[in-house]
Amino acid sequence: MERKFEEELEEIKQSLLSLGSKVERNFGDAISSLIDRDPVLAGDVLARDPLVDLAEVQLDEHCLYVLVRRQPVARDLRFIASTLKVVKDLERVGDMASDIAEHVLALLRYPPVRDFPEIAEMGRLAQQMLKRALDAFVKHDPQLAREVIADDDKVDEMHSRIWDSLVAVMSEELSSIPAVPHLFAIIKYLERLGDHSSNVAEMVVFMVEGTDIRHSVKIRAIRERLAAESES
Amino acid sequence: MKVPRAMEQAKIEVSQLNFYYGSQKALSNISISIPANRVTGLIGPSGCGKSTFLRCLNRMNDIIPHTRVEGEVKLDGQNVYDPAMDVVELRCRVGMVFQKSNPFPKSIFDNVAYGLRVNGWRDKREIEERVEQSLRSAALWDEVKDRLRESALDLSGGQQQRLCIARALAIRPEVILMDEPASALDPIATARIEDLIQDLKREYTIVIVTHNMQQAARASDYTAFFYLGELVEFADTKVIFTKPTQSRTEDYVTGRFG
How confident is the model at residue B4 (pLDDT cuts 50, 70, 90)? Predict the structure, then answer.
């Protein structure tokens, strides 16, 4: 294998890590701006989003360039194909950080709603999922990736629990009604962060093992149904 | 190794094949089922035995002195190394196209008609019909129909290679062996040969040796990876190039050795 090709693959990996750290930072700051009611920090998140977009486009370009030049196969092909998908997930997470920041700025127009430490906890868990998914990608660690995927249920469960609490607050404190929908939106983004982190983790399993585990239960069911239909 | 897809029918079944050049073992214990009406690609670094293996399939190695074969190569169940096997008939059934196009210094027509005449064909009309069919099958007819009496050596490299394919097709083989058939051709001529291979597999079983990984990925349905005289992996081409099971295969196809 040409040394230059090895270098190109390493550059893609480093660029992906750099994009990942930008996204992690933006998402973390968006959550902090919520907890601390900090409009400056929320503004910083919004200001930095174009850098995430730029990194996404540059990394896509780089991957296409390597595909054209090297026509990679086997694990190199799986690495680049996975990177292209992971980039899309990271960019969406970056957008969600901006969306949270916008909701935070809107929330700041209202008095604080009752304290919700569970939202901060959910935010930490979802961020941990992203961090560990990216670690699994860098370390080529499918075991860690599977642990990340398993954590998604916890995030979903927290989402349901907080949702119910927010509904209760709205019914008990009518003054909270204008502010709480922003919190509904924010916890939905946290729940989605868990989903995107799972997507990244699924790509790690594909990249390392060559097995596509996405939607595996649903796909098996639909295949069985289609097979049964074609027989009948 | 079995045909990767269970429902495929084997045209050639090779069992425990060993091949020696003098005392040097060039192929070691090769077992493989080559499916009918499919393109099977043979890949591997230089000297891995893939061309030797190809030539075992129609006993072209017989003409090399001090060579020895052990094991079986069955064509439709009949061992081609059976002493009763008529080698000339075998090579009619299992045709071959080489890396360097090798037209005879004769006219285009006579090149294609050569094998027919050697096999006793005398009827001019029948020969003309078969020559036209073969040139059409080799996707060359439209380019040469008005110059059939011109020398084959005046054709371009890509046309000469298709002429050699037409010559192989004229005697209606069942299997066509191709040893790097496009390695000396430009990309357009290569693409025509690859298209032709896809057309031909409807009627023929094709085994192709190639050094070009992308060509193996494009042209073959199944791919066999040879290394140091052994068959390391034989699988669906998609598997070999996306998710090979053997680390030696993965290292080779990704260019990490060889």
Answer: low
Region of B19 please: left (phi>0), alpha (psi -120 to 50) or beta: beta
pLDDT tens digits, one per residue of B219-248 = 999 999 999 999 999 999 999 999 999 999
Could you tell me which chain A residue has the CA closest to the CA of B213?
Answer: A73
Q: Beta-carbon neighbour count of residue B6 at 10 Å? A: 6
Mutate to test the interface with B, among A4, A70, A73 (most CBs of B within 10 A): A73
Distance CA B43, CA B188 (A): 22
Residues 6+ away with beta carbon under 8 Å from A51: A22
> A2 at the B interface (CB within 8 A)?
yes
Q: What pTM was computed for the model?
A: 0.84
Q: Does B46 touch chain A (CB under 8 A)?
A: no
**Which helix (H) or strand (E) segment is A169 a member of?**
helix A142-172
Spell out a b/e string for B143-176, using b for 16 or more CB atoms within 10 Å of the CB, else e: bbeeebeeebeebeebbbbbbbbbbbbbbbbbbb
Q: Using the predicted structure, report yes or no on whether residue B2 has a pLDDT greater than 70.
A: no
Q: So what's the architecture of A2-231 in CATH?
A: Up-down Bundle (1.20)
Q: Give DSSP secondary structure letters for A63-104.
A: HHHHHHHH---HHHHHHHHHHHHHHHHHHHHHHHHHHHHHHH
Residue of B nearest to A209 (CA): B243
Helix (H, G, I), strand (E, B) or coil at B34: strand
CB A166 within 8 A of CB A180: yes
Q: Tokens at residue A108, please?
A: 């700041």
> What pLDDT is attached to residue B58?
95
Reading the block at residue B199, the tokens are 């057309």
Residue numbers in chain A where pLDDT is lower than 70? 1
The per-residue pLDDT for B131 is 97
Question: In degrees to the nearest 10, what's the CA dihedral of B109, B112, B115, B116?
Answer: -60
pLDDT at position B256 is 85
